[in-house]
Amino acid sequence: MYDFKPATPLPAVELYRELLAAAEALTAGEPDAVANMANVAALLWEFLPDLNWAGFYRVAPAKNGAGEELVLGPFVGRPACIRIPFGTGVCGTAAKSGATQLVEDVHAFPGHIACDAASQSELVVPVLRDGAVIAVIDLDSPSPARFNAADATGIEALAAMLSDRI
């Protein structure tokens, strides 16, 4: 039985160090991308307070056959949008730009996609392999300005570690 959860509230640097170690332990040697994303989504939910959604969107061929789009992957939270075009919403912007999106107020973000009306802030980090976006890690919170630079740095380290495991 795995019990991956920090015992007490920790400073951000230590929290993300423990999260990364737990993700490393759970995904090392496992070749199945879906299993790895599912376990990491559960870890994010356990480790990070004040979330209402944590998970992945994967890059996949667009439903209409024209290019690529994001398709829902493993997550914890309420049901979510299944397909997101590149450049649309916070996740699509992260996928198109290849850059982390730290959004203090999702209602002020042009084109925000409201999958859950309770979401107030969002952090989306692209997962890159050989310079190309293969997925994004998406975190939503019901609190405004929940995420900061330390969160972005921690999730970017997680994304880098996962780049050859998903």
Helices, strands, pairings?
Layout: H1 12-27, H2 33-47, E1 53-61, E2 68-77, E3 83-85, H3 89-97, E4 101-103, E5 121-129, E6 132-141, H4 149-162
Antiparallel strand pairs: 1-2, 1-6, 2-3, 4-5, 5-6
How would you summarize what this structure contains?
The protein is built from four helices and six strands. Helix 1 runs antiparallel to helix 2. The radius of gyration is 15 Å and the shape is globular.
Describe this structure in words.
This protein is α+β, with helices and mostly antiparallel strands and 166 residues long. A 6-stranded antiparallel sheet has the order 3-2-1-6-5-4, sandwiched between helices. Helix content is 33%, strand content 27%. It has helices at residues 12-27, 33-47, 89-97, 149-162; strands spanning 53-61, 68-77, 83-85, 101-103, 121-129, 132-141. The chain is globular, with a radius of gyration of 15 Å. The longest helix is centred in the first third of the chain and has 16 residues, at 12-27. The model has no long low-confidence stretch (mean pLDDT 93).
